[in-house]
Records
---
Amino acid sequence: MRKHLFNVGAILQGFGITFKYMFVKRPTIEYPSIKKQHAPRFHGLHELRRYADGKERCIGCELCSSACPANAITVIGAENAPDARVSPGERHAASYEIDELRCIFCGLCEEACPTDAIVLTPRFEMADYRRGAFVYSKDRLLVPSDAGVGTPPDERPNGIPADLGRVAEVKSTTNVDRGYSATHRGEVLKTERKGLAG
Amino acid sequence: MIPFWIIAVVLIVSALWTVTARKPIYSVVSLLLNFAALATTYLILHAEFLAVMQIIVYSGAILMLFVFVIALLNSGIAPIVLGRDRVPVAPAAAAALAAIAFVATAIAAAHAPAIVPIASHSPLGAVGRGNVFGSIGDFGQALFLSRLLPFEITALILMVAVVGVVLLAGDLTPYVPTRRRAEQSRRALREAILREGK
Amino acid sequence: MLIVLVKSAVLLAVVVTTFAYAMLFERKILGWMQLRPGPNRVGPWGLLQPAADAAKLILKEDLTPKTADPLIYRLAPFISLLTAFAVYAIIPFGANGDGSPWAIGNVNAGILFLMAISSIGVYGISLGGWASGSKFPLLGAVRGTAQMISYELSMSLSFVGVLMLAGTTSLTGIVNAQERVWFLIPQALGFIIYVITAVAETNRTPFDLVEAETELVGGFHTEYSGLRFGSFFIAEYVNMLTISCIATLLFLGGWNAPFGLTLLPGIGWFVLKVGAFMFFYMWLRATLPRFRYDRLMTFGWKVLLPLATLNLVATAAWVALH
Ligand code: SF4
Ligand code: SF4
């Protein structure tokens, strides 16, 4: 009997707690209207940088691709034509794709890159209805030539350069379905690579 | 009069459906309909207490038990397959005779001088302590004053039935609280293990 | 006749709107108590959420499992809905100066009528769960039936105390009998029993064994989708509203103002009391976890029923001695 009375007390206490919590400040961030400020080096969507003269930093060395633990990056390098250079070095990336569905946002590609070309930005909103749309090809990763050059990661001050977010505004022009099959390390890729090499 | 005829048709059709339905659950549903129609008939006769009790007791409690049994036995999904002789001839003939007798009585009664209940003003009958046919007050007066003995005898019979059911279906082994029972079985297990070990 | 139709239509609209917003407020209040804001995306402060939900339910695919009994499966939500709304034919919401109630039908056996209708309401759940032809709904239905029958008993007994004090079965009469003292005070035990059994009757937490998401997927309505599911949903909330109305009428003095504070009209007090009771319901849901099934039965039969009987006998003795 006494035990049951104690239980009634406990129930009343519970009512008190739930009532009190109605007036406690809620920690919710109302996401689409209010966005959280991420840390400057938050690992989000990738971006390919340019030099100040507008040339691409990437030299197609595939170091990022081999560093990637998730096999998310596919780089196909090509020689620079002497009269129309894409990057300052001998080679450039003819095709550069990152499958953001495979990517685990570890940042190892950023670490591996000798020219600070590939950089992770704090952008994280990349939802889409099509799987293929998650394969970001070079035209979506590259900073637009008129968007400034961006700062290489090591020179970043406390904050993020203003142009870092610009990638989002570049609309994909690639065929998203084909884009996806190309990162399956299957036949499509092999034949393409052969075609380029030969 | 028109409501009465509508209700009468519903009553008869649902009663027929109850006995002819092939799935038990259809019998239940049609019986439910039948009870509702019956209650409406009582209402037309200004016996509102009886109408409400008809619903509460028969539809709410007794019929519910039928549903319960059907649900527990899960016998309702498959129709019960019975031969053509589901309705035995002799009882069917007797029933037909009874039906004819009933109709004859009904016709005779219709021509007899009507015994009209003291009409009440509200459509659902007056209540309270007023002396109105079928009202709660009237009903209670009859039940607890002039008909007390039969009422109490009925209660006793029901009580006997309950005791009988408990005797028939109940588990009459002395009650052991769950906790102690668990303790006992645990002890038995421990002893068995010790024996095995030796 | 026309007047009755117009009254019914208005009342139906009011009840449905109340249902819609009761649902929204329940989600809001649950949210606040759990440190969430609750729905706030559709319309300002989430006020259009009910409309969005309704549109969603209407547009959903209507599924009937292969093993279901098609007729009963379709009939069950209907029974639930019908009985949930039928009660409002007799619930009075206020009274005119001459004492005639604001209700569609002024039935003298009001409270009995309520009990009769609510006893039919069980069929929606039990038939629906059975007819779905799968095991979780069946379990939910069997549980629900047993639970509702068990608790209906104590609930009826808690009514009888009030009836004896009021000396009438008419809802208006009961409210008028509370002009001086609410029955909450002489019938405190009855009120507590009523509140507990009422929660069990409407199958809401902590007595929502019928739906018990963690054990039974969705309970009796697991197989239902679209508007049929919606019907069960509406019925549940409308029943909750009914229960609150009954509590107000029987125990909280109906449209009588407390302490003679007549700054609100009677209907205002009525709405306020019903609202407070609904809030209590939601608060309860946010606070207490679900009962275990055997405990539920033990509680109903071994605690509530004896207590209700005791209350009844005590009230009878009191009435007889006065
Ligand atoms: S962040 Fe990590 S997983 Fe993603 S592409 Fe770079 S190396 Fe691969
Ligand atoms: S991004 Fe850097 S590591 Fe990757 S291919 Fe280009 S230069 Fe090499």
---
Amino acid sequence: MANTAKTLFDKVWDSHVVERLDDGTCVLYIDRHLVHEVTSPQAFEGLRLAGRAVRRPDATIAVVDHNIQTSDRSQGIAEPESRIQVETLEANVAEFGVPYFPVRDARQGIVHIIGPEQGISLPGMTIVCGDSHTSTHGAMGALAFGIGTSEVEHVLATQTLLQKPAKNMLVQVDGELPLGCTAKDIVLAIIGEIGTAGGTGHVIEYAGEAIRELDMAGRMTICNMSIEAGARAGMIAPDDTTFAYIQGRPYAPKGEAFDRAVEYWRTLPSDPGAQYDRVVTLHASEIAPMVTWGTSPETVLPITGAVPDPASVADEAARVQMQRMLDYMALTPGQELASIPVDVVFIGSCTNGRIEDIRAAAQVARGKHVAPGVRAMVVPGSGLVKQQAEAEGLDRVMLDAGFEWREAGCSMCLGMNPDKLKPGQRCASTSNRNFEGRQGPGGRTHLLSPAMAAAAAVTGRLTDVREMA
Amino acid sequence: MQPFTVLTGIAAPLPLANVDTDKIIPARFLKTIKRTGLGVHLFDTLRFDGNGAERPDFVLNTEPYRHAEVLIAHENFGCGSSREHAPWALLDFGIRCVIAPSFADIFHTNCFKNGILPIALPREVCDQLMEDARMGGNARLTIDLSRQVVVRPNGEEIPFAVDALRRQMLLNGLDEIGQTMQRGPAIDAYETRLRQQAPWMPGINAT
Ligand code: SF4
């Protein structure tokens, strides 16, 4: 008898197939489309040239995040190109009738923060955005993935995409996470284990005790970096933690509708005996606070480790590439990671820009001070995260400790706004990519958790947060 | 979209793995609202120094590779962001085909939408093609999409796989959105079902 047990991914996929074409490609229905200013102008232009409309404005939400400055916004955006991109989005949403959270609205923020925050991203949905970290929304138990601008146009016009099903991969994280370790350390450990191409062609489902125990913020951090593991998307089965998070959010179903939704959402978790094309198991107890040393997210080690030696790498191309990374990062083999001094600390991004992340950073920074010569900044993921943090007095904690307290946006995660590293500067960053020049031309990035970032700010070097009193 | 049928051109060797989209086109060049004109920024940090001068040792700054139409690279080409500016920059420079052992998913899809053919071949084969590419202008590669073969300068033919639908779209330069819109009735029917089965799913209005 054929195995009819389905994975979470299979269920969400199957329920969204409009039509299956001859070569296995599916016309896949899209429930939610998030739009931002960088990857949408050409898509709207395409619609305009072809005389097409947006099929479902009520399934679409637009926001600016990438270009927007995180300092005072009362004077608008100074840089002309950034301003044009934002103005273009505003003109497009007006012309096509797309719902939009404007810059001065407290709901403005990083697109992957606001979707879950507003209850726009829900379990069992298909969610897309012209942005690879759309995988974040998979933490709700949704199938959420990044698309290019041509596909943005395709979804705007048809509310569908042409896709072939991905393969199923299970990443099981068993056991309990040690003290001082966070979701960020789990996902960095996973990427270190499977590599940046480890998930290519797959949708990763994260499961196991250590995942179940995470709050929604932690689950979002994990799913967020699925793309750094090469996967098309990451998903976590919805459970009571998920439902409690959703209940009462502005765009979530209410009352009886909510109960009906939960009834459906409870059918989504993978069936017992469901088959995965690949299974990877990690033991949470073996995870330590992690930090990257190179220019790819897979170049990651526990903070207790040392910079690796290219001489120990057999494959020539790999050896050359490692040497190139060390040259770029200005590191020497054998150097202890916990001895590396930093110039800048960035706490924010769609990976770690939620209230829980700011609380974790504040817990380390409270009553301490940023080391001399270090610039440390906190950029909340949304206007509402910022408000919440201020209501809890966390802005004071961070300001008193010498951190900058800024407006919501992508900021130094990718340096499209004025928040950039200067050439040669070294940054401890809670974001997701440490590519060459990602945070500014010539800038050097070490990825880590918010608590680890706060610790680095205080000591002025990469630091094992477990040693902070 | 420009159709892709048969391409004969110079192939540039780029023996790097994990060439990410920030490397293909850094974020600071994403502020455009157009699809064209990005070729001058392709591989910006590899191609130019801090003062904007060409780095003489970078392959695309040397003859004949300034005229390359094919790129040969190592594993996981195009990893990183979803930015379609990466294929736009390649296309604007003149690259119509990228050959590598593997590609990141979103980049791979984005190529097809822009008339660029990404071909995945085993590493050993890519290494051979890399050697061909190093011979420069006398060693052009031919990529024949209808026959699904890469023809080496020595005449050897290497078959490659490609999705039937994507192949069809590329060969004919079809407008994918127009094609999907012809399936309007099926989409209408799906939406009707959706309203019945998931009435709890609310619409968005931002006010
Ligand atoms: S915070 Fe960074 S990774 Fe996230 S959407 Fe913004 S730029 Fe992309």
